[in-house]
Design brief:
Shape: elongated
Mean pLDDT: 83
Strand content: 5-15%
Strand order of the largest sheet: 1-2-3-6
Structural class: alpha+beta
Number of helices: 14
Length: 383
C-alpha cells in the first residue's frame, strides 16, 4: 500500500452555521400565543368590545335613558342596506322599516309589525341628542342616526319603557367590562402580596394566612355577596355603589391567586439564584420584586385573565338578583333584570341579548386565558 501524503489535500474551514438572534421572553410568549387560533380570535373580540365600551357615547345611536312610551317592547327593526333609486336601480342606502301597530282582537294586545311603505334612512354622524363624552365635553354627533325627532331606530328592539336596547347594551358594556378589570387589579395586588408573604416566610405566617383563605373559600359565595351588597347604604350614589361592588368582588376573589403565588414562592425560594441574592445582602423586598416575581409573571397574567370572567359573572348575578348595581346605572346584569318577567320575555325575547353578550365575553376571556397559560412556558415547545 502506498501512503497518501496529507500535504496533497487542502482542508477547507467548516461552513459558518446560521444562528438566529436571541428572543426575549415576551417575544417567545407572543410567538407561542399566535399559534393559539382561538386565543387570537378572542383577543380581537375583546378588543372590539372594549373599544365599544370606551367610545360608547359616539357609538350609541340613541340616548340610553330616553323613554318612548309609544314603542314599549318594540321588536328589532328590519335592517336593509340597499334601496331602489329614482331610475329603478339599486343604490347603497342603509335603512330600516318603520313600525305599524296591529291589535289582536282576541287578546286585546297591540303588536308592532314592519311597514314596507315606511322607510327610515340611516345617516353617518348626524346631529342627534347631546351627551357628555367621558364626562368632559358635550357632543351631538354619533356614528349612526336618523333624521327627525319622531323617527325611531331600534336595531335590537326596545324595553318596557321604550328605551333603545342597543344603546343600553353599548353603555352597559362600559360598566360590566370595567368592573372586571378594576376588580382584578385589586385582587391581583392582594393575591400577590398576601400569597408572596405566605410562601416566602412560611411557618406561622403561612399557617395563619392559609387558614384565613380556607375560611373565606368555605363560605358560599352568593350568600356572602348578598350579605355585603345588602349592607350598602341605600342613599349612596350610583358611582359609590359601583366602587363598593368592585371592592366586594375583589375582597372575595383574591384567594385563588394568593394560593398560586404561594405555591410558586415555595418552589422558588430554594433556588440557587435566590440564595445567592440573599448571601449578597439583598433585602427581602428586593429578592421578591427583582428575582422571584419576574420568574412567573406570565403565570400571574394568565391566572388574572382567567379570573376576570368570575368578576363579570359575580356582578351580573348580583345585579340580576337586585342586590348589585341598580338603575339608573346601566350594566348587562341590570339589563337582564328585564328578563325576570316570563310574560314580558315571551313577548320580547330580544331582552335576552345582554345574556348573549355575557356568554360571548366570558368565552372569549376564557379562551384568551387558556392561550396565555399555554404560552407562559414558551421553552416547552421544541418545535
Amino acid at each position: 500500500m502506498t501512503r497518501t501524503d496529507t500535504a496533497d489535500f487542502e482542508f477547507a474551514p467548516p461552513a459558518p452555521v446560521a444562528v438566529s438572534g436571541t428572543e426575549t421572553q415576551a417575544q417567545l410568549i407572543w410567538r407561542a400565543f399566535r399559534r393559539h387560533k382561538l386565543a387570537m380570535v378572542s383577543l380581537v373580540v375583546l378588543g372590539l368590545l372594549y373599544f365599544v365600551a370606551l367610545f360608547a357615547e359616539v357609538l350609541a345611536p340613541n340616548d340610553p335613558h330616553e323613554v318612548n312610551a309609544r314603542y314599549t317592547y318594540a321588536p328589532p327593526q328590519e335592517f336593509r342596506l340597499f334601496d331602489r333609486d329614482e331610475d329603478g336601480g339599486w343604490a347603497f342606502r342603509p335603512h330600516v322599516l318603520g313600525y305599524k301597530v296591529e291589535v289582536d282582537q282576541v287578546a286585546l294586545r297591540r303588536s308592532f309589525v314592519p311597514d314596507p311603505d315606511k322607510k327610515i334612512y340611516i345617516h353617518l354622524f348626524p346631529r342627534t341628542h347631546e351627551t357628555r363624552m367621558w364626562g368632559l365635553f358635550t357632543i351631538d354627533r354619533h356614528l349612526i342616526g336618523v333624521d327627525g325627532r319622531r323617527e325611531v331606530l331600534f336595531l335590537m328592539g326596545s324595553d318596557r319603557l321604550g328605551r333603545d336596547l342597543l344603546s343600553r347594551l353599548i353603555y352597559g358594556a362600559r360598566i360590566t367590562l370595567s368592573i372586571g378589570l378594576a376588580g382584578i387589579v385589586i385582587s391581583l395586588l392582594m393575591g400577590v402580596i398576601i400569597g408572596g408573604v405566605s410562601g416566602y416566610y412560611g411557618g406561622l405566617v403561612d399557617n395563619v394566612i392559609q387558614r384565613i383563605i380556607e375560611f373565606i373559600r368555605s363560605i358560599p359565595p352568593i350568600p356572602l355577596w348578598m350579605g355585603f351588597a345588602a349592607a350598602l347604604p341605600r342613599d349612596w350614589s350610583a358611582l359609590q355603589n359601583y366602587f363598593a361592588i368592585t371592592l366586594i368582588l375583589s375582597l372575595i376573589g383574591w384567594t385563588e391567586l394568593a394560593r398560586v403565588v404561594r405555591s410558586r414562592f415555595l418552589s422558588l425560594k430554594s433556588e440557587d439564584y435566590v440564595s445567592a441574592a440573599r448571601l449578597d445582602g439583598a433585602g427581602d423586598f428586593r429578592i421578591i420584586w427583582r428575582h422571584m416575581l419576574p420568574a412567573f409573571t406570565s403565570h400571574i397574567i394568565a391566572t388574572a385573565t382567567l379570573a376576570i370572567p368570575g368578576m363579570i359573572l359575580a356582578e351580573t348575578a348580583l345585579s340580576f338578583l337586585g342586590l348589585g348595581l341598580q338603575s339608573p346605572v346601566i350594566s348587562w346584569g341590570v339589563l337582564l333584570q328585564e328578563a325576570q318577567n316570563l310574560r314580558a320575555l315571551a313577548d320580547a325575547p330580544w331582552l335576552l341579548f345582554p345574556g348573549a353578550f355575557i356568554v360571548v365575553t366570558i368565552l372569549a376571556m376564557n379562551f384568551l386565558g387558556d392561550g396565555l397559560r399555554d404560552a407562559a412556558d414558551p421553552y416547552g415547545d421544541t418545535q
